[in-house]
What we know:
Distance between the termini: 20 Å
CATH architecture: 2-Layer Sandwich
Order of helices and strands: EHEHEHE
CATH class: Alpha Beta
Shape: globular
Helix content: 10-25%
Oligomer: single chain
Number of strands: 4
Strand order of the largest sheet: 1-2
Largest sheet: 2 strands, antiparallel
Radius of gyration: 13 Å
Amino acid sequence: MKNVLGTTLKLCSSSPLTGFRRDGFCKTDQNDNGLHLVAAVMTKEFLDFTRSRGNDLSSPNPLFNFPGLVPGDRWCLCALRWKEAYVSGCAPPVILEATNEKALKVIKLEYLLEKGRSTKPKS
C-alpha cells in the first residue's frame, strides 16, 4: 500500500488506535463509505469544525471503545471531511507518509502538500 508521496504507507497512530480497521493505518475497503484516508494531527479548530458538522470526535464513545480526541492526536480522517475543512480554512496538518494514496481521488496533492508535514508516528 502506498502513501501520497508514492512510498510505503506508514503508521498513523496506535495511541489512540486509528484507521477504519483500527489497525493504526489509513487503509480502506469496500465497507469504508467515509474513505478514512487522511492521516491528520488534530487541532482544536478542526475538532470544533467537525463537531459543528455533526461528527463529534472530541467526546468519548464507550460503545465503540472510542476515547475522544484531543489536539495533537493523530487520526485517519474521511477524505471529504478533510477537504471540506480545507475549503473552510481549518484543515488540520497532514502526515504525508501515513496518508493513503487513494485520498488523491478526492483531494488535490497540492492541498495535502500545503498542510503536510513529515513526522514519526505516534505510538
